[in-house]
Specification:
The chain is mainly alpha-helical. The protein is built from seven helices and no strands. The chain is globular. The two termini are 30 Å apart.
């Protein structure tokens, strides 16, 4: 059974989806702001807001909001298709290849962002993000990272660190 199929068997993933979708843009924008404030080196990949230092300015950024929406749409597509491992692999391969080839983003940032997402979800949805739910979402984000970094390897990145900051 694939990692995606195993995760699909875990009801906490699907229980979080309605809350996730409802607030996805705001939550992801906050996650990305937190990510960029705490890992400013990641801003180098975003010409539109790489010079922004003020978190409030970042939160108001339409470019950041647009990217947040794209990230959340990809995560939502993965969650909605956990029953279809080929679709999950395809979506995440596209994300990985685009970030490796076009944007040249270091793969470690996916692992860091995954941790940030889990932290913000735990803070914003404590009543839903129980220890059980957190465990399942941690598995999901691990599977996302595995698929994305697999795409990096496929396009010839020589080193993909198994650990990040």
């Amino acid at each position: 059974m694939s990692a995606a199929a195993e995760i699909c068997q875990e009801p906490p993933v699907t229980r979080m989806v309605p809350r996730w979708i409802t607030y996805f843009t705001d939550v992801q924008r906050i996650e990305l702001c937190w990510f960029f404030v705490n890992f400013p080196s990641a801003k180098q990949y975003f010409s539109q807001f790489q010079d922004m230092e003020d978190p409030e300015e970042m939160e108001r950024s339409s470019q950041l909001r647009h990217h947040a929406r794209r990230v959340m749409n990809a995560i939502n597509t993965v969650v909605e298709n956990l029953h279809d491992p080929e679709k999950v692999s395809s979506v995440l391969a596209l994300v990985g290849k685009a970030h490796a080839i076009k944007h040249k983003v270091e793969p470690m940032y996916f692992k860091i962002l995954s941790g940030v997402m889990l932290e913000v979800l735990a803070e914003d949805f404590p009543e839903f993000f129980t220890a059980e739910v957190q465990m399942v979402w941690t598995k999901l984000m691990g599977a996302v990272y595995w698929h994305v970094t697999g795409a990096y390897t496929d396009v010839g990145w020589l080193q993909v660190s198994s650990s990040a900051v």
